[in-house]
Amino acid sequence: MVMKILVATEKPFSKQATDGIAAIAREGGFECVLLEKYASVDELKAAVADADALIVRSDKVTAEVIDAAPRLKIVVRAGAGYDNLDLTACTARGIVAMNTPGQNSNAVAELAISMMIFMARNQFTPGTGHEISGKRLGIHAYGNVGRIVARYGRALGMEVMAYDPFISDAAVFAQDGVRMASSVAELYENSDYLSLHIPATAETKGSINYDLLISMPKGATLVNTARKEVIDEAGLAKAMAERTDLQYITDIAPDTAAELAEKFGKRFFATPKKMGAETAEANVNAGLAAARQIVAFFKEGITRFQVNR
Ligand code: 3PG
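A: This is the predicted complex of the input protein with 3-phosphoglyceric acid.
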């Protein structure tokens, strides 16, 4: 029986990416089936019923979905953050879960930089704005995206500082011309623009709180291309109410988006739908990498990007 790779993307990849995925599947002897813009979990459950492999984006792969997929051996999140995969449920079933780190990072980094300029220029409406050159850019977490944002920030004349809880060697930052902050507090206190690149985990959820936000310099802008869950929304609203100079721009609409928009006007902006990785290039890079990882897993047992070891 031909093994089936299901590509289930509520937010579809570009055609170039799905054609590329299908070609890799075909060459590997797999069948490739697309489920795009699906409207319900039931549709996803029906589609995974005979899938041996699954490629998703931010689609939620819950225990319920896994239960509906008796043949499933591997799930690849075509992207970086895998908080949408129930890893415990995958592991319990012996399903390998992977991501494709780095493949869409440039797209997200470009969006983060453009968001800074958008806010510095009054959301592209008339009036005197600011330049980001010469301003202090803080990078919270120095992974694939954070490093590119740091590089682009420096190219634009920004002074860059970064903090990463897993990197304590200042040389890692210094080689990129970036200063290491010794604590999260130091980073926020010294950032005119703060670009968030932390994953959503039990430790980070709600961690960007009132105390950090209120400590930011006058006129500071928080830029979120990471996850909405890392923000303590009540703390954010309180800080923005007390500090009429603080700004927040995000690629992941907060639960309280309508309230924030009403209260803070142009100091707040949320994209209508997460678009950080929405470039043809990122779709191709992440989608094709996911397909290749699946073929390499079945043919050669390669589990290099497994996240549920
Ligand atoms: C990621 O974690 O890779 C990004 O958030 C992109 O998510 P998306 O595939 O839903 O656009």
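The pocket of 3-phosphoglyceric acid is lined by residues 11, 57-58, 79-81, 104, 274, 276-277 (CB under 6 Å). The mean pLDDT is 98.
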